[in-house]
Write a structure and sequence with these properties.
This protein is of the alpha/beta class and 308 residues long. The chain has two domains: 103 residues, no CATH class; 129 residues, Nucleotidyltransferase, domain 5 (2-Layer Sandwich), CATH 3.30.420. The strands form two sheets. It has a five-stranded mixed β-sheet with strand order 6-5-4-7-8, sandwiched between helices. The chain starts with 6 loop residues before the first helix and ends in a 5-residue tail after the last helix. Bound molecules: zinc ion (ZN). The site of zinc ion has 8 residues, from loops.
Length: 308
């Protein structure tokens, strides 16, 4: 795949719909379209990106967008590709306003694109985290934040918009997050069990809800004071705290507000960029496009409302 140093280079390469169609055909079918209804590999090319199956008794039409996140969308593939590239490369994230400006689309379109693209960032294979795993909880939103949020408070959303996120990070490996309703042991501990291997060496702070984890984990180190980590050698939660600071910079600097309906999508976005930090921009782009095959997220699923 070509090397793209910037969004401009990417859009220069994917200069029109046909270039994007060729790319998707190659990625989906190795260049030879296959009927999704009967798996026949002989098709008529009706028009760019549209095909008709040659198999007798099938003869169905299908498009290059079939069974992808773009299936219900009329937005040019070039815009989709540009947006995917921007989300996989923007370290702190990208607001829908910024996306709209960069791609010359409306903010509403940008918002939908962004949330659909975040489906590419959902972890596909969820296995327990291993080795040395740091666990910590983070609070975002609510009153600690900036004016933008407090303006929203007046509209009655703010009191509830302080989110509790529990995060786990493997030293040198993956990060994972979960949005929690509270910090009770009954809530936090199952999240730990679901995400951290019983053989892992767990490191947490002294939050009361972690205290009895030693009953399940043979190796559990509690770091008493976050600020004294320097004196405690490998027993620290710096890695997860470093990740929280990236997330919080994105929250405060870029997004400024995340509703509880969508916060996990943002978590997935930040986790994806972290988990692919050693991968090149092109590989992330290709990987995200692959991840968007077989994924559907319609208007109602995204907003909880019928499309007008
Ligand atoms: Zn067919």
């Amino acid at each position: 795949m070509k090397h793209f140093k910037s969004i401009v280079q990417l859009l220069d390469h994917f200069k029109d719909e046909q270039t994007c169609i060729d790319f998707l055909e190659q990625q989906k079918w190795n260049g030879q379209p296959v009927c999704p209804h009967c798996q026949h590999d002989q098709v008529y090319r009706v028009k760019p990106g549209k095909y008709r199956c040659k198999a007798k008794g099938c003869c169905q039409y299908f498009t290059v967008r079939h069974n992808t996140i773009y299936a219900d969308s009329r937005i040019p593939l070039r815009i989709w590709f540009g947006a995917i590239y921007l989300y996989t490369t923007s370290k702190k994230g990208l607001s829908s306003v910024q996306l709209a400006t960069q791609l010359n689309i409306t903010q509403k379109t940008a918002w939908f694109l962004a949330h659909r693209i975040r489906e590419a960032f959902v972890e596909k294979v969820v296995t327990p985290l291993e080795g040395v795993v740091e666990v910590d909880e983070m609070y975002v939103g609510g009153l600690e934040s900036n004016k933008h949020i407090s303006k929203k408070d007046k509209e009655g959303r703010g009191q509830n918009c302080k989110h509790i996120i529990i995060g786990f990070v493997e030293r040198g490996g993956r990060v994972r997050m979960k949005h929690l309703p509270n910090t009770n042991a009954d809530t936090m501990q199952p999240a730990v069990f679901q995400n951290v291997s019983l053989d892992a060496h767990l490191i947490s702070d002294a939050h009361a809800s972690y205290k009895t984890l030693w009953m399940v984990y043979d190796n559990h180190t509690i770091v008493k004071n976050h600020s004294s980590y320097r004196t405690q050698g490998t027993y620290h939660t710096n890695t997860i705290e470093g990740f929280w600071s990236i997330f919080k910079r994105g929250y405060v600097g870029i997004y400024q507000y995340m509703s509880k309906e969508h916060i996990m999508r943002y978590c997935n976005e930040f986790a994806y960029r972290y988990n692919t930090r050693r991968v090149s921009a092109e590989e992330r782009f290709e990987d995200s496009i692959k991840n968007l095959q077989g994924v559907h997220l319609n208007y109602k699923q995204l907003t909880g409302k019928e499309k007008k």
